[in-house]
Automatic annotation (TrEMBL):
Keyword Protein biosynthesis: yes
Chain's role: Function in general translation initiation by promoting the binding of the formylmethionine-tRNA to ribosomes. Seems to function along with eIF-2.
Binding site for GTP: 17-24, 79-83, 133-136
Top-level taxon of the source organism: Archaea
GO molecular function: GTP binding; GTPase activity; translation initiation factor activity
The protein's name in its UniProt record: Probable translation initiation factor IF-2
Family: Belongs to the TRAFAC class translation factor GTPase superfamily. Classic translation factor GTPase family. IF-2 subfamily.
Segments forming a coiled coil: none
Protein source organism: Halolamina pelagica
Residue intervals of the Tr-type G domain: 8-223
Full-sequence portion shown in this chain: 9 to 460 of 603
Length: 452
């Protein structure tokens, strides 16, 4: 017997992969809007969420998704820019996403961030499919816009088909080298043991019906039980971004994965100095099929149910951290909720030492990733925090005894103007980058230079 559709939450789908392999383009295609045109350059600066209702999935996927066969309400896609650590999408020590799409450029194959994403998917046990993107760039390709992949595949010349096959088998081989048994999705019988590879073009839409069908099918089949939650309970979510918004001050872009949040709810949010207790002044959301980060005009809502991307406006959010938990208190003891948020925050706390470098990062997840990379490189950390480089950080770094520790390593953060001046005056060196291994490498070469 099928459950009441109102009691099932939307599965959360993370879209990840190497820079420029086509994550945003895929979502653009799905949304039917050109979000990437509004982005700074070709690189996505931030992450956002896109809700696609079942009816829309069904109309895009044609015969491959019959709405009547499903009782999940649709799919909620989260885009992750290539340089943004996917580890931000965490929840309760695991992955925030229920399922993932790993986008791989068919011509480029596996690249560093493809491997990084695979590692995280493996570690968190997140089920995923591979979208082998840009099939339209196969030499001699004859595009059939929006067609299911087998249809367009059959319509190609032998030569074009062969070329595509070579690239696809290359990717299947690379997955196998990484320990994943994989095959073209229509040959996969058991998606729990095998990774399905879906050839697509985010440009022409070929294969996108198949991808949606596989995502809906997998969610319905393997995740339905997890989707049966108390949608009216106190909400739980993860902060994707802390953003200043005209008229609202600091706001939170949140992915709500459990329960409900209502205007006026008391919430607890992970902050730089520990849990922040505040009250929701406004719940803001772009219309379905649009995107948090480009929508200038928000719709104001009384309440929001999981799973959703929503913007929360509330006082005192300046110190809130991206990647941190958000919990609604409603009907529960405040102290208990604060404890829960503290417990989640302490999972991510970085081990620090009396002597070492100062680390700043844009999100809790990237801070964690930075700390791991530095531990592997045996570089000690004096202090590690989420946020832009502030004068306070320079003051802390300047207390180091060793010159090689009078250093701040900033991952994906800005430097406040006052801090800029302090750096010069205090003789503290700042390294900044949006690639973790590059930051570590730069710092290591700096030490080598000094030792020479
Ligand atoms: P980051 O957010 O920077 O990590 O990149 P991304 O993965 O979101 O890639 P994006 O969607 O911005 O695409 C990168 C480039 O590839 C753009 O110029 C797209 O137009 C192009 N592109 C993406 N998908 C396709 C495709 O299927 N076919 C072709 N021909 N070009 C594509
Ligand atoms: Mg992008």
């Amino acid at each position: 017997a099928s459950a009441d559709p109102g009691s099932l939450r939307t599965p959360i789908v993370a879209v990840l992969g190497h820079v420029d392999h086509g994550k945003t383009s895929l979502l653009d295609k799905i949304r039917g809007s050109a979000v990437s045109e509004g982005e700074a350059g070709a690189i996505t600066q931030h992450i956002g969420a896109t809700a696609v209702p079942l009816d829309t999935v069904s109309s895009m996927a044609g015969e491959l998704v019959m709405a009547d066969d499903f009782d999940l309400p649709g799919l909620l896609f989260i885009d992750t820019p290539g340089h943004h650590s996917f580890s931000t999408l965490r929840a309760r020590g695991g992955a925030l996403a229920d399922i993932a799409v790993l986008v791989v450029d068919v011509n480029d194959g596996f690249q560093p961030q493809t491997k990084e994403a695979l590692d995280i998917l493996q570690r968190t046990g997140t089920p995923f499919v591979v979208a082998a993107n840009k099939i339209d760039t196969t030499p001699g390709w004859n595009p059939n816009p929006k067609a299911p992949v087998q249809e367009t595949y059959e319509a190609q010349t032998d030569r074009a088909r062969q070329r595509l096959d070579e690239n696809l088998y290359e990717i299947i081989g690379q997955l196998s080298d990484s320990g994943f048994s994989a095959d073209l999705y229509w040959r996969v019988q058991n998606f729990q043991n095998n990774i399905g590879v879906v050839p697509i073009s985010a440009m022409t839409g070929e294969g996108v019906p198949d991808l949606l069908a596989v995502l809906m099918g997998l969610s319905q089949r393997y995740m339905k039980e997890e989707m049966e939650i108390d949608l009216t309970g106190p909400g739980k979510g993860t902060v994707l971004e802390v953003k200043d918004e005209k008229g609202f001050g600091a706001t939170l872009d949140v992915v709500l994965y459990d329960g409900t949040v209502e205007e006026g709810d008391r919430i607890v949010v992970g902050g730089v100095e520990g849990p922040i207790v505040t009250e929701v002044r406004a719940l803001l959301r772009p219309r379905a099929l649009s995107e948090i980060r480009t929508e200038a005009e928000f719709e104001r809502l009384d309440s929001v149910q999981a799973a959703s991307g929503v913007k929360l406006a509330a006082p005192d959010l300046d110190d809130a951290m991206a990647g941190a938990p958000v919990r609604v208190v409603r009907g529960r003891h405040l102290e208990k909720v604060i404890d829960e948020v503290e417990a989640e925050l302490s999972e991510i706390e970085v081990d620090t030492e009396d002597e070492g470098v100062v680390v700043k990062a844009d999100t809790l997840g990237s801070l964690e990733a930075m700390a791991n990379a530095l531990r592997e490189a045996e570089i000690p950390i004096l202090r590690a925090e989420v946020g832009d480089v502030a004068p306070r950080d320079v003051a802390v770094a300047s207390t180091a005894n060793e010159d090689e520790h009078r250093v701040i390593l900033g991952f994906n953060v800005d430097t406040l103007p006052d801090a800029e001046r302090e750096l010069d005056q205090q003789g503290v060196k700042l390294f900044g980058d949006d690639v973790i291994y590059q930051l570590v490498e730069d710092y290591e070469s700096f030490i080598e230079e000094r030792e020479r």
